[in-house]
User: Fold Short-chain dehydrogenase from Pseudooceanicola atlanticus.
Amino acid sequence: MARLNNKVALITGAGTGVGRACMEIFAKEGAKVVGVSRTQSNLDEALAAVTDAGGEGIVVAADLATPEGAQKAVEATLAAYGRIDVLVNSAGVGYSYQDNHPGTMDDVVNTTPEAWREVLAINLDSGFHMCRLVIPEMQKAGGGSIVNVTSISGYQGLPGAHTYTAAKAGMINLTRSLCVAYAKDGIRANAIAPGFIATRMVESFLPMFEDAAVAESITPMSRPGTPEEMAYGCLYLASDEAGYCNGSILTIDGGTTARQ
Assistant:
C-alpha cells in the first residue's frame, strides 16, 4: 500500500470519474494528491473521500483549458508541497457534454468551428498547458512520470464525436513525443486508453448493457469498465514498477479493440 510513498501527484479531472478514482487510490498508495477540476463541489467530495481514508491532499478549482488555469493549479501544488512527481492528465469531456453544449459531439459537417475549438481546448489543450508547466519542475527534480488518460476512440474511426476522437488521438501522439523528448531527463510519459467506462460522461448509454446481446457486441466482457479499474492502470504507469515503461499506451477496454 505504498507504491507512491512520499510522491506528489497532480491529478486533473479529479472531481469525477477516472480522475477522482486516481485521487483516492493514489492517496491510499502513499501519495500526497492535488486534485484539479472546474467544479468546487465535486472536488470537495473527492478530497473528503481522501482524508476520510487517512490520505493527504488539496484541491484546486481551475479551468485547465486556459493557460491561466493550469498556472493556478501548478502554483498551488508547488506552494503546498514544493514539487511534482506525477502528473495525471484526466481532464476532459465526453458524450454527456452535448446535453448542455449541442453540436460538440457531432461529425465534422455538423460541428461548428466554435464547438471544435471548445472541445479541443478541454480535451487536448489542457494536457498541453499542464505538461508545459510541469515538465520543467520534473527536470529540476531529476525526473517524474506523466500519465495521460486518452481513449480507444483515439485510434478508432467513429461516425460522430469527431472533435473528441481527434483530441484523443492527439493526446496519444503527444504522449509518445513526450517520451522521445524527455526520457533523457528521467521523465516517463505513458497513457491509458479506456474503452466504455461507467462514468457520468456516458451514463445515458449504460442501459445498453442490460441487453446481453448488445452488451456482448460492445465488448467481450459484456460490461462497462469502472473508474477504479482505469485508475489502477494509471497507478502502475505512475509508479516505479513501470520504470522501463515509456511511450506506452495501455489499452483497458475489456477486449473491445481485440476484435479489430
Remarks:
- The two ends are 37 Å apart (CA to CA).
- The chain has one domain: 8-255.
- The longest strand covers residues 187-194.
- Helices lie at 17-28, 40-52, 67-81, 113-141, 162-182, 212-218, 227-238.
